[in-house]
Amino acid sequence: MTELTTDRMLLRQWKDSDYEPFAALNADPAVTEHFAGPLTREASDAMIDRVRVAIDERGYGFWALEVIETGRFIGFTGLSVPNFEAHFLPAVEVGWRLAKDAWGNGFATEAARASLAYAFGPAGLDEVVSFTTTTNTPSQRVMERIGMTHDEADDFDHPRLEKGHRLERHVLYRITRAQWEG
């Protein structure tokens, strides 16, 4: 099982003790503002179960994010394979979701950089994408800080959201191995 460390964080496999704080994070309307809505406890638990399997099978996934100094779980950051249909798929995405009280500390950027180092190192990927709603400017800033670029021609309507949904339109960011190494 792959674990990644940064100066301040451990990106690791999920523990049973992560279920409760992850459910609280997913129930927070501020955290889920740019998603279809808050998750039920059952849906949150099922997400952890799926991610654990992905990490075991691939060696990577959305790793649980723990602050080293305190041992506190604050969300996830990592790599995932989206399973919907879109013009840019198949691909591997880098993504994150952090508890509101962890925002603004650079945790997402730091952990996303570690995820990209793994993607372009041991995972041997040639490109990584990231996407979010057009309204999620904080995540877009993280994408830019980690060296990803945006081309409006890549933007798309998320197929899992109904036509006309306020979050339907998504921006797509990309980074290649060459860009990362440059």
Structure, explained:
The protein is of the alpha+beta class. The chain has a single domain, classed as Aminopeptidase, CATH 3.40.630.30. It is 30% helix and 25% strand. The chain contains five helices and nine strands; from the N terminus they run E-E-H-H-E-E-E-H-E-H-E-E-E-H. The protein has a five-stranded antiparallel beta sheet, with helices on both faces. Strands 6, 7, 8 and 9 form a four-stranded antiparallel beta sheet that branches. The two termini are 29 Å apart. The model has no long low-confidence stretch (mean pLDDT 96).
Topology:
Blueprint: E1 4-5, E2 9-12, H1 19-27, H2 41-58, E3 62-67, E4 73-80, E5 93-98, H3 107-120, E6 127-133, H4 137-145, E7 149-150, E8 156-157, E9 169-176, H5 177-181
Antiparallel strand pairs: 1-2, 2-3, 3-4, 4-5, 6-9, 7-9, 8-9
Helix pairs in contact: 1-2
Domain N-acetyltransferase: 9-178
Organism: Kribbella sancticallisti
Protein name: GNAT family N-acetyltransferase
* Biggest sheet overview: 5 strands, antiparallel
In the CATH hierarchy, what is the class? Alpha Beta
How would you write the strand order of the largest sheet?
A: 1-2-3-4-5
Shape: globular
Please, how many helices? 5
Q: Which class best fits the helix and strand makeup?
A: alpha+beta
Output the helix-strand order.
Answer: EEHHEEEHEHEEEH
- Count of folded domains: 1
Corresponding CATH architecture: 3-Layer(aba) Sandwich
CATH topology, by name, is Aminopeptidase
Number of strands: 9
CATH superfamily: Gcn5-related N-acetyltransferase (GNAT)
Q: What's the mean pLDDT score?
A: 96
| Radius of gyration using CA atoms only | 15 Å
